[in-house]
Amino acid sequence: MNLLLMTDSYKAGHARSYPPGMTNMYAYAEARGGPFPATVFFGEQYYRERYLAGAVIRPEDVDEAEAFWTAHFGRDDYFPAGAWRRLVAAHGGRLPLRIKAVPEGMLVPPHNVLMTVESTDSDFPWVVTFFETLLLKIWYPTTIATQSFFIRRRIKAQVERSGGGVGGLDFMCHDFGYRGCSSEETAAIGAAAHLLSFQGTDTVAGIRLLQEFYGAEMAAHSIPATEHSVICAFGRDGEADAFAHQLATFPTGTIACVSDTYDVFNAVERLWGGALHGSVAGRDGRLVIRPDSGDPMEIVPWCLDALGRRFGVTTNAKGFRVLDDHVRVIQGDGMDFASIGDLYAKIVDLGWAAENLTVGSGGGLLQKVNRDTCGFAFKASEVTVDGEVRPISKTPVTDLSKRSKDGRMKLVRRDDGYATILQTQEPDKYAAADDLLETTFENGASVRTETLEGIRARVREQEGMAFPTP
Fold it and tell me: Which of the listed CATH numbers 3.10.20.70, 3.40.50.300, 2.30.42.10, 3.20.20.70 matches domain 143-366?
């Protein structure tokens, strides 16, 4: 890993493009808005400790970068290798940066500062924007954490509407996204972010990231489950044998079995509800049936009705039907933020309690987002040149929504939530305000460490905040 090669090409020479006499730079990151009324900040600790902490630039890194950028641009006067060698000598390879950020797991409305980055050595102010490419990647874990937070709120609303406790909510949206992710690191970061709001996953990489960087022990759980290769291996005429084998192999506890390999209607009605009824109903545990093809809005209600006929139902205190405790349904195909909420609302509209259903999501959970989903941006807002402090901002006449903030800023708590105070606009209020941004990194040292347990607690405390559920 060479940090000097982990930036956009054009940034490689910006140290030579900024004004002569520039001695300080200050920048900030924010989410400018999207489909969610607030964002759940997450992932800065991972990027900071994984990439920035310690002596991260070596003399040989500068040599390699110099050769690379010279070949890449076809000229040797763009990348300032000499400046980087001076930085390595002066700081022992540590980065002269100060990062401040909101606590991880905090729910912050759009257009508010989430993180600031400032240079700490007057000889190297340009390091701030050089590392924008890496630091702005917090958009991804923050977007996934935000999406899962509001998925949980949508499911919770249907649980409360249809009766039953919310004790099982942690496992009502399961992460099946591992194979659909663009890389191992994407899977790890995204799955970790999802686990702020839920505790069910098959994406092992996320658990391991939380163990390494967030002090977690076992952050999530799964259950024995089949896939189509298991059912197919018994032959087309052996589907009942495949199901029976699964029941016999795992005679206790909760298990899941995909049931649409051939004919989901036959599997539910005649196999699970017929030939294998006694084995399911007499088992010390729960069978979760997975009807994973077709229109979920039609197939899932049919499965609930069929299982209700075969295994029986009870009616809860709110008058909603609950399947016999030995059977439940999980839907994994086609599930994303919109369809998860719609499916839960559909079954509740039909008189079924939400607790009868679990959903799993893959690409719709971890890949159906981009930097623009929540409108993430990283902008320089202040520089010092020849001793003059200059608040700076972009204000494009063609799109004023992209106007950036100028000067230094603080995030403060208000009775109705949070607000960003700009030093340029309210200097007295800025000076007196208690800043919610905390120093997390300074001169190569990671100075704030949060645990998964603490972040989850913060997320839970905010579930009742007065933000509309999209």
Answer: 3.20.20.70
DSSP helix, strand, coil percent of the chain (3-state; round to 5) = 45, 20, 40
Does residue 158 contact residue 346 with C-beta atoms inside 8 Å?
Answer: no
DSSP string, 383-400: EEETTEEEE-----TT-G
How many Cβ atoms sit within 10 Å of the Cβ of residue 318? 11
Query: What digits encode the pLDDT tens for the residues 156-174?
Result: 999 999 998 888 999 999 9
Which pairing describes strands 173-175 and 357-361: parallel, antiparallel, or unpaired? parallel
Domain 3-138+371-461: give its CATH code: 3.20.140.10
The model's confidence at residue 463, banded by pLDDT at 50, 70 and 90, is confident
Residues 185-202, mean pLDDT to the nearest whole number: 98
To the nearest 10 degrees (0 to 180), the angle between helices 139-162 and 184-194 is 40
For residue 465, name the pLDDT band (cuts at 50, 70, 90): confident
How buried is residue 8: exposed, middle or buried, by Cβ count under 10 Å (0-12/13-18/19+)?
Answer: exposed
Three-state secondary structure call for residue 295: coil
Q: What is the pTM of this model?
A: 0.96
Q: Which residues contact 171 (CB under 8 A, 6 or more apart)?
A: 198, 199, 200, 221, 358
Residue whose pair of structure tokens reads 């645990």 in the numeric block: 451
**Tokens 């972010």 appear where?**
193
Strands of 2-112, DSSP E: 22-31, 39-40, 97-101, 107-108
Q: Under a CB-based contact definition with an 8 Å cutoff, are residues 4 and 57 in contact? A: yes
pLDDT in the model for residue 401: 82
Residue-averaged pLDDT of the chain: 96
Using CA atoms, how far apart are residues 440 and 98, in angstroms rounded to an integer?
Answer: 8
**How sure is the predictor about 87, in pLDDT bands with cuts at 50, 70 and 90?**
very high
CA distances from 225 to 176, 238, 253, 327 (A): 12, 18, 12, 14
Structural domain spans, the chain: 3-138+371-461, 143-366
Let me know: does 311 contact 324? Beta carbons within 8 Å.
Answer: yes
327-331 and 357-361 strand pairing = parallel
Q: Which residues contact 101 (CB under 8 A, 6 or more apart)?
A: 41, 44, 114, 115, 116, 437, 438, 440
Vertex 200: Cα angle to 48 and 283 (nearest 5)? 160
